[in-house]
Amino acid sequence: MTTLRQAQGPGAAQASGSNGQSKSQRAYHWIKERIANQEFTPGYRLVLGTIAGELDMSVVPVREAIRQLEAEGLVMFERNVGARVSMVDDTQYRFSMQALSILEGAATALAARRLTADDIRRARAINELMIETLDHFDPRAFTRLNQEFHAALFEKTANPRMLDLVENEWARLGHLRDSTFAFIPGRAQESVREHENILQLIESSAPLGEIEKAARRHRSATLDAYMIHEHPDEALGLPAF
Amino acid sequence: MTTLRQAQGPGAAQASGSNGQSKSQRAYHWIKERIANQEFTPGYRLVLGTIAGELDMSVVPVREAIRQLEAEGLVMFERNVGARVSMVDDTQYRFSMQALSILEGAATALAARRLTADDIRRARAINELMIETLDHFDPRAFTRLNQEFHAALFEKTANPRMLDLVENEWARLGHLRDSTFAFIPGRAQESVREHENILQLIESSAPLGEIEKAARRHRSATLDAYMIHEHPDEALGLPAF
DNA sequence: CTGCGACCGATGATATACGATTTCGGATAC
DNA sequence: GTATCCGAAATCGTATATCATCGGTCGCAG
Fold first, then answer.
1. pLDDT average, residue stretch A24-44
2. Which 78-117 residues of chain A approach strand C with CB closer than 7 Å?
3. Residues of B in contact with A23 (CB under 8 A)
4. Which of A57, A85, A113 is the last residue of a domain?
5. Which of A204, B146, B184, B222 has the fewest CB atoms lying closer than 10 Å?
6. Does pTM surpass 0.85?
């Protein structure tokens, strides 16, 4: 007995045919979105059956989705108990930012020599856009542009592995917090200036060491600003070098 | 012949009771070991049903194991097609080494100020051991000691996220190749000298920038040696900075 | 002889089924 | 009144079943 199951009708067990991606992927994005939206706050218990019910699928794809999220560190998983949304304290955010400063600095240096004049132009255009938005400041939009700007600089990195690592770290930060600039709006102005500076270094074929240093500093300065703003009493011990 | 299998009968679906860990974990380790042992060579097709049969379990845990391996980059997965062991060309190895040089250099610098005299002593002891083994050179053992040495230096890093990244990258390299030193035995001597150099920098509280540079160079020198040995015609474009 | 399309086998994706494990509340003993 | 134990409910882990999709083969037409 085939248990008539879902309304989708008899032929639609597989997702791909109708919509284009697997159920597990759908579940994955669904959950991820909830986490990003804070609907599932840290500590929230992710129950397979419940989610499966809401998404109108069996628990199997949901389970897989959760394991994927676990691999990304978004949720913690305990055997025979289940998954819950990871706790993300400030500390982790800061560590991730620092790691990103290192990765991004290196990736940018590794890409510098491969950027064409056109690439630079494109990056500069993005930065101009950022400057324009400074008036009616929208932290979320600014952060998006910021990401675009840097992506433009290192996407051509000579080392795809570094690109992976950077993107991964960026995604991680995205989970931890929507936008840093929401916390320290004043940082935005400096930021765009530093962007221009980095561009000039690249254009003038400055030593790669200089470029790396500038790119790293640029990001760790954001972190510093955040620290001073939010935790004036602590320090990370990051060498500025 | 066991095939009537689960003598356990229809009940006992759960593994934990008898052995202690889940079937999916068992499958995970089983597959991983095969890959490490080169029994499953790159490109090898991982068929759920077959593996499930060999491990005497259903396909569900196997599937999960494979997804885990996918997340680690050990296997490639294609929807509705299946998984195969990732291709690992030299290129990836080199990129990973370069990434590691960057990560490890930074992690070492971030740990430098937190190392006690005792930590240094321990690291030096490991290096002495490495020197001793130079006579009857065993690449595998040397690599293991090398890992221990560096781990001793950065395990106290101020940034746990960096530690994660470094360890992850190291694991990745482990999959890609057993030991670099098997390819370029001559590098071993230089290597231990550089180790001592790094130790002295840390002891003398050299600027963190110096320490990072030394640690990074140390590893990228290994990479360079490998390149010269194996691919004298190519270049990576890594800035020595 | 060659190219294209329909069929078929292999395998992946998902649904359902059910025992196992954990958790939590209530009853009981001290 | 508090601690402990027992049992039920919730939920997980895995087996089995079914359907979808992919890849290849075979046959037919040009």
1. 92
2. 80-81
3. none
4. A85
5. A204
6. no
Q: Does B239 sit within 8 Å of A208, measured CB to CB?
A: yes
Please report residues of B whose CB lies closer than 8 A to that of A102: 102-103, 106, 162
- Helices marked H in B40-134: 48-55, 59-71, 90-112, 117-133
Decide if pLDDT at A116 tops 80: yes
- Cα–Cα distance between B210 and A121 in angstroms, integer? 34
What residues of A are in contact with residue B71 (Cβ under 8 Å)? 68, 71-72
* H or E element in which residue B45 lies: strand B45-46
Indicate the residue among A36, A70, A85 that finishes a domain.
Answer: A85
Amino acid code (one letter) for B138: D
**Residue-number span of the structural domain to which A49 is assigned:** 23-85
B151 and B34 fall within a common domain: no
The count of structural domains within chain A is 2
- The mean predicted confidence, pLDDT, of chain A is 85
In a domain, B224, yes or no: yes
Instruction: Choose the weakest-confidence range: B6-15, B38-47, B229-238.
Output: B6-15
- Which residues does residue B75 pair with via DSSP β-bridges, in sequence order? B85
| Residues 6 or more apart in contact with residue B17 via CB below 8 angstroms | none
Confidence check: pLDDT of B181 > 60: yes
Contact B119, B177 (CB under 8 A): no
Which strand C bases fall within 7 angstroms of a protein CB? 10-23
B136 vs chain A: nearest CA distance in angstroms? 35
